[in-house]
Design a protein that fits this description.
The complex is a heterodimer of chains A (322) and B (117).
Chain A: H1 2-18, E1 47-64, E2 67-69, E3 74-91, E4 94-110, E5 118-137, E6 142-152, E7 160-161, E8 164-165, E9 178-189, E10 194-205, E11 208-209, E12 214-216, E13 220-232, E14 235-246, E15 249-251, E16 256-257, E17 262-275, E18 279-293, E19 296-314, H2 317-321
Chain B: H1 2-15, E1 32-38, E2 42-44, E3 48-56, E4 61-66, E5 70-74, E6 77-81, E7 88-98, E8 101-112
Parallel strand pairs in B: 2-8
Antiparallel strand pairs in B: 1-3, 3-6, 4-7, 5-6, 7-8
The chains are: A mainly beta (322), B mainly beta (117).
């Protein structure tokens, strides 16, 4: 009964958040990009998991709210990003995860002839996150996980080119401490051949106050509904619908940045392949199907990510044998 | 294995620290900014304005920074533009420096909405 109420509560929260006034995230927001696919499997006690993620993003169209608008400025922009993730099971129901990212390139190519192409690269933010089981009922194949974490702006936020500071959207680090949390509920059906899941995440940024820059990124909400199907014992296909909702940012004197935030609704097909012993390859593609930006913003056309992960590395094999 | 991971993370974090940009952090009395001016101080989003600094001193170098918006070029003359994200009064800081130290000045450019007449 309590579980039913809990699930109902989560679903209610999920759908209520959908009714919030639509707002979104820009293509090249500063700092680490938010992950595309939810992580179902956390590491269990003494189990180490290492992953390497590559993500590419491309944007080439300006939108005025939900309509395309012709602006002669940026022709296209995007990034190529690598992320190393390490997760370790501290307890049987809790793990800790560290992620550090590096932008191989973060660029803007301009139509405006007064401006030439700008490229940045460097270390992004450091994410420290704990993930824990909140509830599981193996007989009903239901699982509820929670996560809490913090992103530290350890990366480059003052990148210059010829003594000229690059704009904030090209800086590899967000420059801001960010706090995030999430809930993921999943259920296996049809003899575990199909899984359905829902995830909600929120990320809150701390205000940046430096000598020449005072800014607070809008809070980001990510809502996902999806299903996975086991095509073969080692190959699964997933399809998610995902909403990224971003509140408006603020600049000095608490001025609202009107051309920030909005909502983007995406379809995310994903393939997951397990091979050898404990290796996993994940490919996800993200393409917006609906968007509503506040004012005029450059919108993301697509992103894709490729992740290779090694599970089941036991640091204390002696304990495992016991 | 543990040590290797630890070293990797420490190395990544250290790489991001300790930037040395060669600009002395002392105010110099041997450099003087004569003027810092823009061709237009009130522009529409994504339009461009030119900003020029004139300074006296020996072997001068110039660093530029905008709190919002993009800068193109370097040296005594740059171009500035900003999108709708940066509507409002934006501050462009010019730092002139040499081996004796630095001086800096700011200029403010108002950026209007793209669809505003």
């Amino acid at each position: 009964m309590i579980m039913k109420k809990l699930i109902f509560g989560i679903l209610f929260l999920f759908f209520s958040l959908f009714s919030i006034k639509l707002s979104y995230a820009q293509c090249c927001a500063a700092g680490n990009p938010i992950s595309i696919a939810p992580e179902f499997q956390q590491s269990y006690k003494d189990n180490l998991q290492i992953s390497l993620l590559f993500r590419q993003s491309y944007s080439n169209t300006y939108y005025n709210e939900d309509e395309v608008i012709d602006i002669d400025y940026v022709d296209h922009s995007g990034f190529n990003y690598l992320e190393l993730g390490i997760e370790y099971g501290l307890l049987s129901m809790m793990s800790i995860r560290l992620e550090t990212g590096y932008f191989l390139s973060k660029y803007e190519i301009y139509k405006n002839q007064d401006f030439e192409e700008k490229k940045a690269y460097g270390i992004a933010d450091l994410n420290v996150e704990t993930r824990f089981d909140l509830y599981q009922k193996p007989s009903k194949k239901i699982k509820l996980n929670g996560s809490l974490g913090m992103k530290f702006p350890v990366g480059v936020f003052d990148l210059e080119l010829d003594n000229v500071k690059l704009p904030v959207q090209l800086q590899p680090s967000s420059g801001s401490y960010r706090y995030h949390g999430g809930l993921l509920i999943s259920k296996g059906i049809m003899n575990n051949k199909v899984s359905i899941f829902a995830e909600s995440r929120v990320e809150i940024s701390q205000r940046i106050r430096s000598k020449n820059f005072d800014y607070k990124y809008g809070t980001v909400y990510v809502l996902t509904l999806g299903a996975g199907y086991k095509l073969r014992p080692n190959l699964s296909a997933f399809l998610q619908t995902r909403a990224e909702i971003r509140d408006k940012s603020q600049r000095e004197n608490n001025q609202i940045v009107e051309a920030s935030g909005g909502t983007i609704l995406m379809l995310v097909p994903q393939l997951s392949y397990q091979f050898m012993d404990g290796w996993n390859l994940n490919l996800a593609f993200l393409s917006p199907v609906y968007r509503h930006y506040n004012s005029i913003q450059l919108g993301n056309k697509y992103s894709f990510s490729l992740m290779i992960k090694r599970n089941n590395i036991y640091l204390h094999k002696d304990r495992l044998l016991k | 294995m543990k040590q290797l991971l630890l070293i990797l993370f420490v190395a990544l974090i250290l790489l991001s620290c300790g930037k040395e940009d060669g600009k002395k952090d002392v105010v110099s009395d041997q450099i003087k900014i004569i003027s810092l001016d823009a061709s237009q101080r009130n522009i529409k989003a994504w339009d461009t304005t030119s900003i020029t600094v004139i300074a006296t001193g020996e072997n001068l170098s110039y660093a530029w920074e905008a709190n919002h918006g993009d800068i193109k070029g370097s040296g005594i003359h740059i171009k500035y533009a900003a999108g709708n994200c940066c509507i409002g009064m934006n501050t462009i800081t010019c730092k002139v420096f040499n081996e004796t130290g630095f001086v800096e000045d700011t200029i403010q450019i108002r950026v209007r909405h793209y669809l505003e007449d």
